[in-house]
Write a structure and sequence with these properties.
GO terms for molecular function: magnesium ion binding; terpene synthase activity. Helices cover 72% and strands 0% of the residues. The chain has helices at 2-18, 27-39, 47-63, 70-85, 109-119, 127-143, 147-154, 163-174, 181-212, 225-235, 242-265, 268-280, 291-315, 321-344, 350-360, 363-374, 380-389, 391-416, 422-430, 434-457, 461-481, 493-503. It starts with a helix and ends with a helix.
Length: 507
């Protein structure tokens, strides 16, 4: 009853806030309103108004307003970022008049922040944006040592999951005198409504996990159902994607279990047989394996059969199991390669490691579930065409997941004696220190983001709404491994994020 009351109030507030777009405000004011709406988690409520403002009011005024004043640079930098974020063409030349290549950037923090954030939406070959990124990072660090500046230089907006930033932006808006009270109230209502939806979804997957009754029999693996849901909700946070969140949560928890079978529990012979069983999708193939591994296989087999049926019913589409199964086959084969390296004491080159590691990251597997779970095409070929169109995005998203994982877990894995990570591979291959290796890995992550930006921008607009959830997988990798291993350590930053985003409502 209370939730229904909130939704009625939210509808009334949306109508009132919508009127703000038609008020006579400056182009900068329009830009800042769009930015505020995005950051408060309300972009889905004002898509039409935002599109109209960007295409008509803002674009026209920005084209005719090109002086070199610092306040104009701020507006231009903000406009550049918003245009790119919303899928419009925005040339880096928009910023060329304000940057001469010698580091003479403006000295005010707001403009530098916008330039830095915009530079992380760059694509291959955009050298001006690369220069802007380097110089704005340097100048921001010289101007301020605050935690906010450190966060955005290390983890820019383009790499973060928007929904998990909303609460912080709402609290910040509460302390700002210029915030429209109706907009703030709407944001708080929206946050609490979506959080309540997430809580109901989480209860469902916890019930599924308990009914599965396998934790007691698998003392070697991680019980991370809440963290798995946190990851899934970051991929698809919108209220209407409850089914997707539940499917992904189950898949992520199963990924952790299967990963531990290959990394911790199974002998090489056992994981070879387990891989054959996955390829044949036949429970008979695991009958001679230890009971623990048989339990893992049955849980995976039965859960995937159920998820496939649910996807087909919900989307009224063609069979999905053969394609989701192929994702698991690819994933397990990649884990087997790593297990073989470990048991034979082989340290691969970084190139060899990544050729296999992008698949073992589980990015491709998750992407298959996202695409098949969200499309409502009537034929398999239409969905496969979408998979083909975004295969570069899937690849680079998977690389980012792999490398972020390595950055967060490398030291612990080295101490534990696990298979060498990308950092270890590069250290031994090039005979360099861990710091140098980490810097090199960061450069690969940066380049992968440039490729994602490029390939997303050339996608048909009809595909972007689905593919943005694939890209959210990479963003969630930054969230989970930014301060260590978000799956391995339960009392760290991830626990705090779970509390504020999934548990505690805004008052």
């Amino acid at each position: 009853m209370q939730e229904k009351k909130y939704k009625v109030e939210a509808v009334k507030l949306k109508e009132e806030v919508s009127c703000k777009f038609t008020e006579s405000v400056s182009p900068v004011g329009q830009l800042e309103l769009i930015d505020r709406i995005d950051k408060l988690g309300l972009s889905g409520s004002f898509e039409v108004e935002t599109k109209e403002a960007l295409e008509n009011t803002i674009l026209d005024s920005m084209k005719s307003n090109s002086s070199s004043k610092e306040e104009d640079l701020y507006a231009t930098a903000l406009c550049f970022r918003l245009l790119r974020e919303h899928g419009y063409h925005a040339s880096q030349d928009m910023l060329k008049d304000f940057f001469d290549g010698k580091g003479k950037l403006p000295s005010d923090i707001n403009t530098l922040v916008e330039l830095l954030e915009g530079s992380h939406l760059s694509m291959d070959g955009e050298y001006l944006l690369n220069d802007i990124r380097l110089f704005s990072t340097k100048n921001l660090k010289n101007l301020s040592t605050s935690s906010d500046i450190n966060r955005l230089t290390n983890n820019p907006l383009a790499w973060r999951v928007r929904w998990y930033d909303v609460r912080r932006h709402i609290i910040s808006a509460q302390n700002c005198k210029n915030t429209n009270p109706m907009l703030l109230q709407l944001a708080k209502l929206n946050f609490n409504i979506i959080q309540a939806t997430h809580q109901n979804d989480l209860k469902d997957v916890i019930r599924w996990w308990r009914n599965l009754c396998i934790v007691e029999d698998l003392d070697f693996t991680r019980d991370r159902i809440v963290e798995s849901f946190f990851f899934a909700a970051g991929i698809a946070s919108e209220a209407q994607h409850g089914s997707m969140r539940k499917w992904l949560t189950k898949v992520i928890q199963l990924i952790l279990i299967i990963d531990d079978v290959y990394d911790i529990y199974g002998s090489l012979t056992e994981v070879q047989q387990f891989t054959r069983a996955i390829e044949k999708w036949d429970p008979k193939e695991v009958q001679k394996l230890p009971t623990c591994i048989q339990i893992c296989f049955r849980a995976l087999h039965d859960t995937m059969e159920e998820i496939s049926i649910e996807i087909e019913r919900k989307n009224d589409g063609p069979p999905t199991l053969p394609h989701l199964k192929q994702g698991w086959i690819n994933f397990c084969k990649a884990l087997l390669v790593e297990a073989t390296w470990y048991h034979k004491g082989h340290i691969p080159t970084l190139e060899e490691y990544l050729d296999n590691g992008w698949t073992s990251s589980s990015g491709q597997l998750l992407s298959f579930h996202v695409i098949f779970g969200l499309t409502n095409y009537k034929t398999t070929n239409e969905t496969l065409d979408l998979c083909k169109n975004c295969q570069e995005i899937i690849y680079h998203t998977s690389v980012i997941i792999r490398l972020c994982n390595d950055q967060g877990t490398s030291t612990a894995e080295l101490e534990r004696g696990d298979v060498a990570s990308s950092i270890i591979c590069y250290m031994l291959e090039e005979n360099v220190s861990e710091d140098v290796a980490r810097e090199h890995i960061e450069s690969i992550i940066l380049n992968s983001w440039k490729k994602i930006n490029y390939h997303f921008n050339i996608l048909p607009k009809s595909h972007r709404k689905i593919v943005k959830h694939v890209i959210n997988e990479a963003r969630m990798a930054h969230v989970m491994y930014h301060s260590g291993d978000g799956f391995g350590v339960q009392d760290g930053e991830t626990q705090d994020q779970v509390l504020i985003n999934l548990i505690e409502p805004l008052i």
